[in-house]
Write a structure and sequence with these properties.
The chain has about 170 residues and is α+β, with helices and mostly antiparallel strands. Helices cover about 15% and strands about 35% of the residues. Strands 1-8-3-6 form a four-stranded antiparallel β-sheet, with no helix packed on it. It has a four-stranded antiparallel β-sheet with strand order 2-7-4-5, with no helix packed on it. It starts with a helix and ends in a 6-residue tail after the last strand.
Length: about 170
């Protein structure tokens, strides 16, 4: 009796495998033969001979050049993040999210945490708000300090800065 059951199971499994294979073979018999196109291929998007020298209408993609300046979690009463701007990377994007219950006073200073404030960066960020800003012109090279302050020790949030060689990259 066991041998009959085993033979039945094997027969059913064999049929289960054979049916899809047969259906697949029948479906592929209706495929038209491949043809070749005699039209010559053209490279109309880029007609320059020297690939390193783009010409008008090349439609090439220019690589973007950005780098992180800082990424910090805000806490306590005061936080600071320092960063350097190298030559050719003077455009700056700043982003600060206040997830705490206190207003955050934010500014970016040149050369020290008490140095001159960079134009457009001295702001107050209310609880639940986000400050996002991109410089309108390139900043000079050097060392900069992002400062974050609250009236007590309940500051909470996230902040980052990013550098780029052009404003459009940010």
């Amino acid at each position: 009796m066991k041998n009959i059951k085993k033979a039945s199971v094997v027969s059913v499994l064999s049929l289960a495998l054979a049916i899809p294979l047969t259906a697949s073979a029948a479906a592929t018999t209706d495929v038209a033969p491949a043809t070749t196109d005699t039209t010559a291929a053209s490279q109309s998007a880029n007609t320059s001979i020297d690939v390193n020298t783009p010409t008008t209408g090349d439609h090439i993609i220019t690589p973007q050049s950005t780098q992180p300046a800082f990424d910090t979690t805000l806490g306590g009463q005061q936080s600071e993040a320092s960063f350097s701007i190298p030559a050719g990377m003077g455009y700056v994007k700043l982003w600060v999210r206040n997830t705490g219950t206190e207003t955050i006073k934010f500014a970016v200073h040149k050369d020290s945490s008490s140095g001159s404030v960079m134009s457009g960066t001295e702001v107050r960020i209310a609880p639940g708000d986000t400050f996002s800003w991109i410089s309108s012109s390139a900043w000079p090279t050097g060392r900069f300090y992002a400062t974050f302050n609250t009236s007590n020790t309940k500051m909470s949030g996230q902040a980052y800065g990013k550098l780029a060689s052009t404003r459009s990259e940010l």
